[in-house]
Amino acid sequence: MKEETSLKNRTKKITTSSGFSILEVMVAVGILGVASYFVVSLLHTSLKGSIQTNVTVQAENIKRNLVNNFTNDPSWINTVKASPTLSACLAPLYSGGTASCPAGDYTNIVVKDGGGHLFYDSTATSNNGFDSNGAMCLGGFTSAGNDKCPFRVDIKVTLSCPSGDCSNPQVQIVGDMKFAPVNPAFKVSFNPAKYHFDFIRGQEASSLQATCDMLNGVYDSGPPPKCRVSIVPSGAIIAVNSTSCPPGYSVFTQAAGRLIVGVGGTSGYGMNDNGGSDTHTLSLAEMPIHYHDIGVIQSYVAIAFGITGRGGFAAGSFAETMGATGGLPDGASQPFGTPANGTAKPFDSRQAFYTLLYCQKN
Prior knowledge:
15 strands; elongated; three-stranded antiparallel sheet; alpha+beta
């Protein structure tokens, strides 16, 4: 009995000295385990998201860099010369010759940059690829997976010959990307179609710049090189609210101080016709038919007048000059019975206007 009491007291002392019972300790351990699980899950999710972001960024960079090398003329020429399937038959284009490649698909493309440095060798047997930083890895890619070389791009160049003439082939470049890591943690979402590229370089006999000049375009060496071609045809006329014409246009001097009139119409205007003036002086023939009242002085009643509007007086009669009216010349006067002195005053024949600069497309 004394021993039982002693054991209970010792148990009570252990509980009191530790501050927790066995049950409380077990509950605390359980809570800590759940919290640890959520922390680990959160870290795993965060790591997965970081890997996903890196894969997306590097895949985009690989695609963009390859396309830039293909569209940049110096890089493309170096690529042609380095690729065994293209060098013999396509390289002569860039040394004053003509191509001799038959139409079809060409693989085993060796991509070099403008400085002649190797960027990527897509030879099928080489198993080359790109690492997680977008740099080429030699012989490391495998469809079974390789974390150090998880990317690969298969490149195909297709030559077509317009009108059967293969001396100046059209070049189409296609790229398909693969992503194959081996570690499950690195196996994130990857859509190959998003990183696929397919474009046509164009006719290779003339450079992009020469073609751009021929089209009256504005050439930009890039990279990548671009040609901005205006859809406005040569000879088109525009009016600009500026003292100078935009690039590609010259002042259309023939329109200076003149209004533009369309060709044809009821007046039958021909191309490049011109006419008219800012002011005009009416001639007698241009005056409308009109009449003037004349007051006869009493002492002249016995005199025969032959006024008919423009002359034609009866024999033995005379004409009396009336005082002029209307647009007399500046400073002129017209006393009754005498002709107007000076010349007729012209009037402004212009309609209301607003000036702009006319420019013609070169």
